[in-house]
Specification:
This protein is α+β, with helices and mostly antiparallel strands and 419 residues long. The chain contains twelve helices and 18 strands. It has three domains: 77 residues, OB fold (Dihydrolipoamide Acetyltransferase, E2P), CATH 2.40.50.100; 78 residues, E3-binding domain (Dihydrolipoamide Transferase, Irregular); 220 residues, Chloramphenicol acetyltransferase-like domain (Chloramphenicol Acetyltransferase). The strands form five sheets. It has a six-stranded mixed beta sheet with strand order 9-18-17-16-12-15. Strands 1-8-6-3 form a four-stranded antiparallel beta sheet, with no helix packed on it. The protein has a four-stranded antiparallel beta sheet with strand order 5-4-2-7, with no helix packed on it. Strand 10 and strand 11 form a beta hairpin. The radius of gyration is 26 Å and the shape is elongated.
Length: 419
Amino acid sequence: MATEIKVPALGESVTEGTIGEWLKQPGDAVEADEPIASLETDKVAVDVPSPVAGVMSEHKVAVGDTVEVGAVIALIEEGASASPSPSPSEAQAPAPAPSESKEKDDRAKEGPSEELIAAAQTLSPAVRRAVLEHGVDPSTIKGTGKDGRLTKEDVIAAAEARKSGSPAPSAAPAPAPSPAPAATDGERREERVKMTRMRQTIAKRLKGAQDNAALLTTFNDVDMTAVIEARSKYKDMFAKKHDIRLGFMGFFAKAACLALKDVPAANAYIEGDEIVYHDYVDISVAVSAPNGLVVPVIRDADKKGFARIEKDIADFGARAKEGTLTMEDMSGGTFTISNGGVFGSLMSTPIINPPQSAVLGLHRIEDRPVALNGEVVIRPMMYIALSYDHRLIDGREAVTALKIIKEAIEDPTRMLIDL
């Protein structure tokens, strides 16, 4: 009996997605809850699992097609079993020698190299997992998917070929071609790559924010001496007790909570002709992911301690790189913090994350001369920026909120005694 595989619910306000990759081809055996397709949505790439065990019967849509929630994308023959013949590499591959097995175990314990992790960042979640699992360099594999995209099957075939010592099937050589002519000086090339659904959505939302909101940015600079000294003094004790590194984002998240408590308009948004205020603080944290910028949410940040906030941020960062963030992780948010300083930014004017009304931009720390008590001294300084929707937030309120953040960072005790 054929079971229809439908696009699952993708989260609040998300009604459709794009087929990014088929993880199972017609004739492949499928286990219950095993992913059969990768679906690109406005916010994240998600795997579509099979509700039953059986054999993939038919694809109803192709890679690149847009499908709505509830649409049938495939058929699976429930209870059937696939009996694929072993590939030549599987049939002829000799059993690994004990030394080879030991080397493989050692590599597995060491984990993937930093170069391999970096190379895998631009791939879809399923292909990325296969690359990291098998330790295959994706740049050496010829993709057989649409527009030359790398598929999970390409990675597995290359891994099997490497075991047997034969060339990868996808890169099997034809008669040796003549050497490609060397590029001439001044040669100019163009490449056209279709925007991912996530990148299209990012572009649409950011442009929409500029079109709909009255955006304005106010700046200040912060002396990071106190925070740096606190981290230096307590980082070892903090890591030992909480099993997480004490970073800067925890300080800024708690400082933002103080500011939003005193300036509630910065934690609100406009809906129609009404202003929606919140008595809680859900902070969206801008995180760089392989397919673009994502903003997972630290919920109830005003009620959480430094350790819980740092753990949430570390978890979001790791899952963003792995491509395993969920729609629930990204939904909501009443205020955003974006840290361009990790990339070396000195100053910027961040754009709000609709429907929110304010975003805090952090930048790099650098030693600069400043006047202190009538003397010129060198201090680790950071520029901070608050972009806001001037329709809702007045200049006085924006400046006040940023000043509260500055004072809390320069005197972290304020965060402990709620000043």
